Amino acid sequence: MPSKKRQLLTAVIGAGPSGLVAIKELLAQGHKVVCFEKSNDIGGLYVYNKNTGGVFKSTLLTSSSFTTCFSDFPPPKNSPLHFKHNEYLKYLKDYVAHFNLSHLIKFNHIVKNISQFKEGGWQVSVFDSLNDSEHIMKFDAVAVCSGAHQKPIMPNFQGQESFQGKIIHSDQYKEPSKFKDKIVVVIGGGESGSDIVDEVSQVAKKCFVSLRRGILTIPRLFFDFPSDYYTTRLFYSLPNWVLRIKSTPKVYFKRGVLFLLSSIPFLFPFFLFVFMVSLTPLFMQYVLMGLACILLLIALLRINEYFTQKVKPEDFQIISKLAKKSLVGHGEQFATKTEGLAKAIAQKRCDLKPGISEFRTEGVVFSDGSKINADAVIFCTGFKVSFPFLAKTKVDFRNFYKMCFDPNLGKTLCFIGFARPAIGSLPPVSELQARWFSRILSGERRLPNKDMLNMEIEQDRHKHQKTFKVVSNRLNNLVDFTSYMDDIAEHVGCKPKLKNLIKNPMLLLRLYFSPFGGYQYRLEGKHHKSEIAKKAIKQTSLDFIIVLFNYGLWSVNLTSRILYKIGFRSFRGSIGLD
């Protein structure tokens, strides 16, 4: 039922995934909404157009369909493990139809300017490109959902203007045929860069990838399941230093002690099984031990099949090499959740090069002094966020409260969809931000007073710089997926409570063993949809390999919790349920 509290007229800028979920959550809270979309369709960058920026022809999402979808609208049963861009666009259109949102979206409307009235509220100037007319409207609140992929970053190297080959940004890349039989240099190894290298290297005469430092690469699939199926609440409950920060001699020692002690709870059920079998008649001993051997054989065959047929050792060697060159740990940087680049290097389709120092007429010179002639250079160097309608051309999200609220603009303007998970999916983050904003506008939630707000911003900024070290300044909107989600969920009032979950042990087990996503935040709190959430969580696969992996994590978690309880404070878990 719509809230009977304050109902505000709210402008939503952008009809991509973040804008759509903002519309829906604002409506659920009883607010009135008008959404302005500059193009003629929903979906933002997921709309394929060969003449404009956005996705390229073969774009495949890096997060699984399970973790990408919104918490109250799970993917259909026949959905692929990963959406293609057109499949995800269809999902978004189904979402719009299901919640009846389309009549609230004004297409071909470009927001030109937003200004705040002294007495409160916002003046929004909008250009209707279809009718060539401009309108000025007044709103109580504004949700900025224009997306982080606004302006391509194009570094300017010495001599670049003299280069006679072709230079493009990944935003302009659509398909590889234009680079057939050419010598191509790709700058950058993010997710787009990795997939572009994989495609281009298959048709180019020669392909090079230039990286200033290494990258963390996570394969899309691991044992036939999306890699985010293994990044569970159980995984993220471990102390950060166990698997997520750069190794040091001290960390190696602590890990060794922890894993050694963890072998006790890990092996206990096996010893218990052997003991129980020894109490049975001899015939049953043979039967039970035979069954145990069959299960062990199945597991070994699965592991052997994966490492001999689906992933080659040289791929993992390249992934390991790139990770070491990144200089930081797995939880201290943005992850490239596709192995295309590593595979291309391993298969000798692409050569790895250091950063570029300068361009020349016929090619480029790298920082190690090596030179190559090139026909084309593709800049996969990311995007910068810009808000021209707010006169903000350079934004540092570390100065915002929880990456959402600019303290100088107040609580009635929220930036939704700009916090970028280092590992994880963006749509569920946007959904929680939208739920929080809608409740703030209703007066059901409050921001801290100015002094407290600025203190928390400074604390979060310090934590960001400590966590993300070498990338904090460049990727100032990067967040740790799980701790950020739990933090925003606490503000919303929808973080699941352990005391409630204990009443349903199988759901609790599934919650800890299933991929970390948004469904858990629909189990309780306002606008909860517990039946949908329970069904989605229970439908996730508990394949033998996934169960075995999580059982190992449980053993390490149990041991670290015991050590923490007896006084070893550094064994405290990263996240937890109260």
TrEMBL record:
One Pfam entry name = FMO-like
Q: Which residues form the signal peptide?
A: none
Q: Does the keyword Electron transport apply?
A: no
**Which keywords accompany this UniProt record?**
FAD, Flavoprotein, Membrane, NADP, Oxidoreductase, Transmembrane, Transmembrane helix
User: What sections of the protein cross the membrane?
Assistant: 256-277, 283-303, 544-564
Identify which cofactors the protein needs according to its UniProt entry.
FAD
Which GO molecular function entries does the Swiss-Prot or TrEMBL record give?
flavin adenine dinucleotide binding; N,N-dimethylaniline monooxygenase activity; NADP binding
Q: Which InterPro entries match?
A: FAD/NAD-bd_sf (IPR036188), Flavin_mOase (IPR000960), Flavin_mOase-like (IPR020946), FMO-like (IPR050346)
Similarity remark:
Belongs to the FMO family.
Q: What is this protein called?
A: Flavin-containing monooxygenase
> What species is given as this protein's source?
hydrothermal vent metagenome
Species lineage: unclassified sequences, metagenomes, ecological metagenomes
